[in-house]
Amino acid sequence: MAGPQNPGCRVTINGLLPGGEIWATQFWLDDVLIGTQANLDDLASVCATALAGQEGLLLKTLSATSFLSGLTVRYYPAGSTAASLQSTPTFTQSAGTGTKNNPNQSCIVASLRSGVPGRRNRGRMYWPNTGGDLGADGLITAAMATNIGSGLANMFGAINNPGSTEGGWVSVLSRLTGAAQHVLNVQVDRRPDVQRRRANKISTPAPSNWSVTQPP
Predict the structure, then answer these.
(1) How many helices and strands (H and E) does the chain possess?
(2) Bridge partners, residue 75, by sequence
């Protein structure tokens, strides 16, 4: 895995699901101007404000027992695969406003499109769909897809401020080459998907057992 060609930041949005499970989704910021911890704290605050500004849309696919908890921003110098600075801004945890109770692993996939051909030049964000509506066709409703697509696009637009200590350029980072391509639009797939999480982030309730009558 190559480090980024330019200094950048990984922004991780996180929250909680029923049973104490954790969810997280990420995007990359290119063309950031970070020299100190204070600079990164300023950038993280901008990201948190942008996220909070879209809660009205983004919470509609989370159930009332699912939560949007906040975000963490990590700064990576050019060529480095390890973060050198980290900031977690103040954020008020909010419960979802969705009316359904879908499985914890249910999610909506938002594709981040750069306009440059090739899989390495587009990204994906998995957003929880524990409370969003499904139509009679088994697909995520157009209204729910619009909530997530427009919510993320609006958030990205509020963060885009390249070459600044208070923003960057929302991008897709190639792990193979370290090159970043700027995100031009967000596409949302209406087919429900599954977000796979690490075992230590998944609560496992005790299984139920039923005895089978054996012949004499």
Answers:
(1) 3, 10
(2) 9, 85
